[in-house]
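Q: Structure tokens for this one, please.
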Amino acid sequence: MPLNEIVLDMDKVKITRLKTDVLIVGGGAAGCFAASELKLNAPNCDCIVMEKAHIDRSGCLAMGINAINAYLNPGETPDSFVAYIKNEFMGVVREDLLYSIAEGLNSVVHEVEGWGLPIEKDRNGYYKMRGKRSIRIHGERLKPILAERAKRSGAKILNRVVATNFIFDGERVSGAYGFGIRDMTFYVIEAKAVLVATGGASRIYKPNNEGSARNLMWYSPWNVGTGYAMGTRIGAEMTCFENRFVALRVKDVNAPTGTLALGVGAKQINAIGESYLSERYECFGGRKCVTPYRLYATILEDKAGRGPCYLDISHLSDRERRKLKEDFLSMNPSIVLLWADEGLDKKLSCVEICGTEPFIEGGHSEAGYWVDVDRRTTIKGLYAAGDITGGSPKKYASGAWVEARISIKTILADINLNGKIRAVDESDIQNELQRITAPFYNHNQNSVTAREMEERLQKVMDEYAGGISTNYELNDKRLRLARDLLNELLGHLEFLRAENSYELVGCLEIIDRIEVAQVLVEHLFHRRETRWPCYQTRIDFPDRDDRFWLKYVNSVRDTSSGKIKIIKRNLQ
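A: Here is the predicted structure, written as tokens:
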């Protein structure tokens, strides 16, 4: 039966209580690696992986990747890796987290290669480099490889179970709740430690395209910030949400520009054929043209009437074009199919590029949980790994594996495998069940669907919190309007309605996204400078200001009032 035809009959909802030593929330790159790492180091330690989709093809790696973008090739060191990312993010990074990632990158890549990941090699057996910190792979089946390893580890896998909240007594996390989409089971999973690895947040902003094409440009549309929302609801400290990520992509298809720029040396050109990065924007105030500026320069060219902009591939030979198509097929075939359909695969000389809507994540940028170097969050019993952790950008898939390894080592050192698991109160169970199923009872003229609420959220964020329609630009007045409108939306959540379990999940997702958006707007409002153009462009504070803002903007949501408190922390 199709998922959207599963009717939610409340009489059939059953409660299942499970106990485990370690609960991993999220079965993506970090979650699968963590399950394998845990069982490898502690075979007798019970482990459950709770995954919203199916671990075989879930998360950001679902369709594959064509490169490992965090790897130390010969000549690179942990120190040079940290220095590179510190420069890219204008000084505001967690150097301690980045260094711990850099130390483990190569070993985790070698381990995953041993699991079956095909890595391209030259005739001498050395990895083929795509850049100083990148190697080429055939990664279409990377996620199934990780999933198979997690399953073979002996961890219990709960597929198609949506995490809804942590089990929290005011001091410690001791598990999580989940809702089974297919079997309508409400899970109460009690654990000695919880690792959150749910990834970042998409679908908060209005996307480039509408309708069936609305989620085609970048990032998994099913990663909606649930892990963030669950953490903020219990008062976990978050960091760097204002450092949004806006991807520079091939227009209208899910195709990375890095495959063109790094892979085949394609230069960015404008509509009149100028290589504008080198001619106009090679240095912004004496700074090398780092990642955010490549997009910023593209926006400026378009505003000046010299757009649209492109990546120039006119120099490629037929052999190089064939190799380029192979690289895209390892990650996403849509661009290759588009070229073939339009008869452009042999005669195409340039590829149009544009920015996506903003995303909130900690793999490419640095939004996420504030953690210590051992990946403990500020809440006892709760640990984090992967895109959900903050302050350590450009870690990508391999960095997520390193964080998974670090967090598992910490968990095994922290927990008592022979100790008892703290039982959750029955009243708490009933309260959470009533909260998540409330949309099923709203069938009056005032009720709204999750899709209708999503459209409103995305319009608010696009127009007032720096979306595509405003060239990602922000100012005080717009952000204040965004804050007020989000508060209104939060008050309307009681009118959400659902006809079946699929729509119920949509309701839970929009609740989480609105709460994440609230935290984001507060971060954007309080960083009164422009440090990362396009990621965070304050037109009322256009200059970078190291005197006052070479620091982290963190936040904690008050668990009683719901108000968000901003905390400014000095660099570590």
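A few notes: The CA atoms of residues 108 and 114 lie 10 Å apart. Confidence is low (pLDDT under 50) at residues 1-8.
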